Amino acid sequence: MKKLILGMVFALFSLCAFAAVDINTATSEELQTLSGIGPEKAQAIIDYRIQHGPFKSVQDLQNVKGFGEKTIAKLGDDITVSSGRKTSAKKESQTDSNSAKSKTKEEKKK
Fold it and tell me: How many structural domains comprise the chain?
């Protein structure tokens, strides 16, 4: 029974080790688990996120100093970008404004 439990625990940790790191949400420590990413590059990723908002794709990492196509290719499937991002308040405001304009035009047609 102990061997079964230990095996399950090991399997769980193994799965966690193979999970891709989300560059939009990862901490410095999490980013540093990636091959070739030390404290300086991890901080550069975080600084970029703070200044420019979330990454839209993994390829946006090229905009961060020290990252090129080769580095991104080397990281391969170890990195990902979350798809469940919230839109900015500015974009939501523009959407609401456009929606209101459309409704006004429809009302005028009636």
Answer: 1
79-92 pLDDT, tens digit per residue, is: 999 865 433 323 33
Residue 107 lies in a domain: no
Q: What is the CATH number of the domain that holds 67?
A: 1.10.150.320
Q: pTM for the complete prediction?
A: 0.60
With beta carbons less than 8 A apart as the criterion, state whether 74 and 36 touch. Answer: yes
